[in-house]
Amino acid sequence: MGRRKQHPGVGARVVVAYERNVETNARLEDSGIEVLAISASELGTGRGGPRCMSCPVSRDLL
Q: Is this entry keyworded Hydrolase (predicted)?
């Protein structure tokens, strides 16, 4: 068995985005992408991003 490749995303056609990105989120949703909108008012003060609020996700291979 070869090396297992990690998938950096939440899921196929699923993204994490700031809820304040209203226009961008609407365009993504119109394109069939599920947007997990997060409130991140405090995250920006620490110079972080949505990735800073996540951790590796383990999934079963299909």
A: yes
Measured in degrees and rounded to the nearest 5, phi and psi for residue 50 equal -55, -35
Every domain of the chain and the residues it spans: 14-45
Tell me the average pLDDT of the chain.
76
Largest Cα span, the chain: 44
- Is 55 catalytic? The answer is no
Question: Which amino acid is located at 45 in the chain?
Answer: T
**Encoded tokens for 23:** 């226009």
Which among 22, 26, 36, 52 is annotated as catalytic?
52
Does the pTM exceed 0.85?
A: no
